[in-house]
């Protein structure tokens, strides 16, 4: 006889590195088991819709290959020899190695390294509390957001924009530089609502026919790194045709006269030659937004993946300003809400112990750091001990060969705290099994929306698994800093302190309400009372070197990248790694729909749906090269070379090769992943890795 299993519903937030930060409803089968995961219908941004990979989250939590016991390396690094070790012994070993590194070279020889495997503020950022208490090397985060955030703030003065839910009230939605269907599905929820209810066309601007572009009413496929040229032509047309809102510009623009003069030569014909779009496509798009006051520009993180991304983002953001779209409900622009939260993470990160004289190391240049580049090391000692949480640099970081070579150093001790045996864990000296977000308390905020969300512990983690918070607390005891502020507190106590310290009600209120919407009023969100830049004006003329930005390097690092080559007015900044005789193709490495960076690449559902690593190539390129569908080709540049099968695809643009997703390195023929080919040279003005901005050669394998 079938016995009915009693389940209950739990409420939490998606922890992953996605701007949507969806509110989730989770089926809880018993104290250690979850079932179906759904989007919360009563959350006005999630609106009941989540991506397929998180809907299958039980696959990840209960995966048969999940790490369940601490493992210590036996034999050579990378050879796969492991023995089980108890938690106390494992943590004793980490502390011993850290103290040895400190005794030999000073505290800066230890580098805690982390990123966004979870976006929870306690479990992600608590590693900094240990860093600051012990005066370990700092980490300057450059791998994701820098150029996009910098370009947005260059114009508005603040990292915030129009309420993204207003897309549903738009008469035209422009999705620029983001494959929202694959990476933030809720953007499409609100954009499609505008199309259904208001007849709003959806315009998608990207570099290939990705799933979002396939849903577009107007698809503009441009060459990688040429967004700024398109934006300048749109502004040129606005001034030429009288669709620029001159009254709005007189009130809200810092130098519209100078802008108009600067862009007088940036004609559609000029932009066509750079972008590969036709003049008719550019003119048609300009005409559409010129007659549509309620045009919403949703600007994505594609701007962070190119060397001229800051200038390109600023140029794209200038378009709705020149046309005056900000004045209207459903009009204006949005990228990220980072300025809304006002979070004071003093105890979570141990900011009272922060010493600005301690060096910072560039996260994206981990390869150069670990292989002893003096500049990357800021003139300081070598890194000889690391704790890695929430990231997988052997797979996701640029210049992968240097990263792997550095991690393989015999004099470097690496402890990796992970849920799966990632490419980085395989090269570690010690692997510690980590809890999932369903198994601990944390707090989240939506970069792509306006909610603060509580993510409570819903199930018990396996007995031999530990949270990030536990590891940091236990290391603090062994390293003699457990008496410093912030240590000795539970996750819930740290969350409560964070909320109260930041001017919100405490955890009890947030837990009761599940989330808090901090979206500002209409006038503030649309900058109707003035922009946050000096004088209340939108900055068309930018002093990049003097810009105050959310992720500006610390003074000890200075400016990063060729800042002197950045134009002060919107323009096409010719800083991209363009083709040459030896490297006739551009390579872009955008996200796959079923993976999230390197997360979910281990789950059967995601891998089965993605198939295999492939290189998308336009039929004209394939015919010229004599390459057939499925044929193995070798692509490379000065950083290295890899082998991939070709997928001939009309969705690719001629001269542009596309590889979707971050597959594990072992999924490739030679055991090296796509980031062998990507560069770690900093993008101006404040650093960043240009993952979609690479030149390569190609030949049959």
TrEMBL record:
Cofactor: Mo-bis(molybdopterin guanine dinucleotide)
Domain 4Fe-4S Mo/W bis-MGD-type, residue spans: 7-65
Keywords, alphabetical: Iron, Iron-sulfur, Metal-binding, Molybdenum, Oxidoreductase
Name of a matching Pfam family: Molydop_binding
SMART domains the UniProt entry points to: Molybdop_Fe4S4
InterPro entries given in the database record: Asp_de-COase-like_dom_sf, MoPterin_dinucl-bd_dom, Mopterin_OxRdtase, Mopterin_OxRdtase_4Fe-4S_dom, Mopterin_OxRdtase_prok_CS, Prok_Mopterin_Oxidored, YoaE_C
Region described as Disordered: 594-627
Domain of life: Bacteria
Biased composition regions of type Basic and acidic residues, renumbered to the chain: 604-627
MF-aspect GO terms: iron-sulfur cluster binding; metal ion binding; molybdopterin cofactor binding; oxidoreductase activity
Family under the similarity heading: Belongs to the prokaryotic molybdopterin-containing oxidoreductase family.
Protein's name in the database: Anaerobic selenocysteine-containing dehydrogenase
Species of provenance: Aureimonas phyllosphaerae
